[in-house]
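Methods — Computational structure assignment.
A single polypeptide chain was analysed. Its primary sequence is given first, followed by the predicted tertiary structure written as structure tokens.
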Amino acid sequence: MSACNISALCPIYYESISRYANKVALIDHSSSYTYEQLHSIARQLSHRLSSLCRQEKSTDDTIDANSVQIGVLCPNDASFVIALWASWMIGATVIPLSLQHPPTLIAYFLNDAQCRAIIVGDDHCNDLIKTTLENNSLTDIPIININKNDLASTITHDDNLLLPTIDRKNALILYTSGTSGKPKGCVITFNAVQAHVDSMVKAWDWITDDVILHVLPLHHIHGLINALLTPHFIGAKVIMIPRFDASKVWEYLIRPAPKQQVTVFTGVPTIYAKLIQEYDAKYGSCSQTREIIRQQCSQKLRLMMCGSAALPESIYRRWYQISGYNLLERYGMTECGMALSNPLYGERIPGLT
């Protein structure tokens, strides 16, 4: 494979494609994809997007002709990764959107970020965006509806990793929660993303053989950078389910299948609270089942984390009783990434972060 000489356009996925092309990168609700397959499909989509970089300069002086922002509204499956990689291949900045956002908020994001296009991953996303644009006088923004199954049917094998394109610095615009006013877009450069990822690989000993179960939204730093970009940078496997489901998560956590044995899990306090509720209702009454679950979690899962909100000590203690594992709490912000963490090795203090 050819070497990349444009540092800003070698973010995250380049190393894993070049080193782990035939390794499974992602398993979603419908299929599994190697790193090479994801890259090949993204390459096809990037050809469809490349015209956005050649648009003539707008008469609006506030719009930078060299800046291309693309909104991405995709389910939690391979379509999101494909849209993200394809956008980066043409040097675009990605604005991840969520189906949980009301249409008025989506319209605000699109206007504020000056999006030139929106990639949607299925018909549901397409309908929501179409209605949003029509109701907010934004019909001049093109919608690019991708079907990952159709794209996957024409996978090609190509030695060239990246399309020739100009050098752009910004990778993402992530919007804060807006607790003190309207949400504010936080611009994250490729270098910042790489620094975030490097710090997490080092702090939490990510390895190629790791398998993470991904249940988080993709429009926040937790679900996007911590739980997706970091494992993909190191060549690990991501099992992604469409949405959090406590029953399904337990099935994965205690599954004995070696090739899909989850080794890393991360969530927010409400996720662990719901997992505890499910455990008490479904497994808690049988001592033998309790022991099997505790043994499986303590021996097979090497890292379980919690963040994005303060973890009540009662949940921390109860989770240890169930799993034999002290949750690793960490603290971060959209603006700076992960800032504080309990140690991977050594005593962990509940509520420290």
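Note: The longest strand covers residues 170-175.
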